[in-house]
Design brief:
The complex is a heterodimer of chains A (276) and B (257).
Chain A: H1 2-6, H2 25-29, H3 31-56, H4 63-74, H5 85-116, H6 139-142, H7 144-163, H8 177-185, H9 188-216, H10 224-250, H11 266-275
Chain B: E1 4-13, E2 22-32, H1 37-50, E3 73-74, E4 77-78, E5 100-104, E6 113-115, E7 118-119, H2 122-129, H3 151-161, H4 168-172, H5 179-190, H6 199-213, H7 222-226, H8 234-252
Parallel strand pairs in B: 1-5
Antiparallel strand pairs in B: 1-2, 3-4, 3-5, 6-7
The chains are: A mainly alpha (276), B alpha+beta (257).
């Protein structure tokens, strides 16, 4: 190109790697490697979301069964490990996956922002003068950067709400998750937060499930169509499953009436669970 | 005589890499529907030259869709709305009489504007320099068909080699990522026996050079839609797989860095 020769500026790299870390850490230094980490942690987190949802279905069996499930989680590993040991291993693993998922997403977004910077001559993100018609990019793929932070905020809210019981106050009963869920979700604003966040989660998972195969290079024209269907199925199941909790509590189908054990009587729950 | 079109064009004009650009409005009257998009620009330029104005600068060369020199974002789509078509092969019959067409350069930080619609795509050359070749011994020409190449590998490699390096993938990408270009160049050589010797070295070097200029892929798929050669997204997955393989394998070459 003659034009290239006459341009004194050329393009300058936006990012230069100064040194390489030892294997396998050097994989994380590259964008492609970070996408691998994002995909692998995404699979882990997706697994958590699915297991968490299935476990929560115990709420439809009643307070005793949900208590039994919560106890089973604390006693994971049977007599091989001290009580709650394996649960903490899982929790720390989850936290590590969250941190890596978020860090890789954030740092890659920064790289993309740099690569698009000063490209629009207006300032900010890359923009064209004419309205850009996205052909392939769908709503889910374009909003990953918004649904992600929404899920993070919701996660913190969810922990403060049902794990730490910050705003249920005296109404929060340690060891009676059934009551806590009902007490929390009976408030309409809280139920709305759960609905909005879980819709965001399903949208995030829809693009994530399709995209992770691409990032990991698991790709074959034979089953590329199946990937879209799988993403729809996974996102759909998670959406319906997770929305069932706030919806059914708000509808009054799951409530504290007709309980065998009165609210707050954890000993009774334990006794019933043993008999169960 | 063929149908004639009267069009309004909004064209990006910029005097140099560091100067501020702006849109200029032009009217194009009596454009034949058999013209290509570039011939339409030629017609406007003729008018501009005759009235003593500076013509619109744009890149073009072969005008038969194989050189990858022409670019242009036409109404926000790289190479226009026609699928798998370069700007030079885009015919004016695809537009309607009275249309307003917005014409802009390909945009990315790695594609600085040289002038008007001409951008510097030399960062693609940096990626090719990093490994987009095979090394062979010189000397007498070897026998033809000495290296057996599986038909499927040859076909897929050829599909990847169809990439003309125009940069539409980067222009269409909201992240300004060059994954489709780099992966096509990699698949072209990595799939066939001739490319095996340098396969993993090539993959590492080209991917890392790409990352120093371009953004990161978020799997939107806009690049494939914009690609005038219909390069498949599958090549990106192939590149992602080969890159991590390269990292693992190169470590196995004990004593080598």
């Amino acid at each position: 190109m003659a034009a290239t020769a006459t341009n004194p500026k050329g393009s300058t790299p936006i990012f230069r790697r100064k040194w390489q870390l030892p294997f396998p850490l050097n994989i994380y230094q590259s964008s492609v490697g970070r996408k691998w980490v994002m995909a692998l942690t995404g699979i882990g987190l997706l697994g958590f979301v699915i297991v968490h949802m299935i476990g929560n279905f115990h709420i439809y069996e009643g307070p005793v069964q949900l208590h039994e499930y919560a106890e089973a989680l604390r006693g994971l590993g049977g007599g091989l490990f001290p009580r709650t040991f394996l649960l903490w291993v899982l929790r720390i693993g989850l936290a590590a996956m969250f941190i890596l998922h978020i860090h890789s997403a954030y740092s890659l977004k920064e790289r993309s922002r740099k690569a698009s910077d000063k490209a629009d001559f207006v300032g900010g993100e890359k923009k064209y003068g004419s309205k850009r018609d996205y052909v392939a990019a769908n709503y889910a793929s374009r909003t990953m950067r918004w649904t992600g932070p929404i899920i993070l905020l919701y996660l913190l809210f969810h922990l403060a709400d049902l794990t730490w019981g910050w705003w249920l106050g005296d109404d929060y009963v340690l060891g009676d998750p059934y009551h806590n869920v009902v007490a929390s979700l009976s408030s309409l604003p809280v139920a709305i937060i759960y609905v909005v966040a879980n819709v965001a989660l399903a949208i995030h998972i829809f693009h994530g499930t399709w995209s992770l195969f691409q990032s990991l290079g698991i790709n074959n024209p034979k089953y590329n169509e199946l990937r879209r269907s799988l993403a729809k199925l996974v996102a759909g199941v998670i959406l319906v499953g997770n929305l069932s909790f706030p919806v059914l509590v708000t509808a009054g189908l799951v409530d504290d009436d007709n309980r065998k054990c009165p609210v707050g009587d954890v000993e009774c729950l334990e006794k019933e669970a043993k008999e169960h | 005589m063929s149908k004639q079109l009267n069009l309004t064009l909004q064209v990006w004009r910029q005097n140099g890499p560091d100067e501020a650009g702006h849109f200029e409005t032009y009217t194009a009257e009596g454009i034949s529907e058999d013209m290509s998009f570039l011939e339409m620009l030629d017609t406007i330029n003729e008018g501009l030259v005759q009235s003593g104005q500076t013509p619109i600068e744009f890149d073009h060369d072969c005008r038969e869709g194989i050189c990858g020199t022409c670019s242009l974002m036409i109404n926000g789509q790289a190479h226009g709305q026609e699928k798998a078509t370069t700007t030079c092969q885009l015919h004016m019959r695809k537009f309607n009489d009275g249309d307003t067409i917005v014409v802009e350069p390909f945009r990315a930080r790695a594609f600085p504007v040289v002038r008007d619609l001409v951008v510097d795509r030399s960062s693609f050359d940096r990626i090719i320099e990093a490994g987009g070749y095979i090394s062979v011994n010189t000397g007498a020409a070897s026998d033809a068909n000495l290296t057996p190449v599986p038909k499927e590998a040859a076909d897929t490699s050829f599909d990847a080699a169809a990439c003309i390096g125009c940069g539409a993938c980067v222009a269409a990408c909201p992240n300004s990522a060059a994954q489709l270009f780099t992966s096509a160049k990699l698949a072209h050589l990595n799939l066939i026996p001739q490319g095996q010797a340098q396969r993993f070295e090539r993959t590492e070097n080209m991917v890392e050079t790409m990352e120093s200029f371009f953004g990161s892929c978020t799997n939107h798929g806009e690049c494939h839609e914009a690609c005038p050669k219909d390069i498949s997204l599958d090549f990106i997955a192939f590149m992602n797989r080969d890159y991590v393989k390269a990292k693992v394998k190169n470590r196995k070459l004990a004593g080598q860095t």
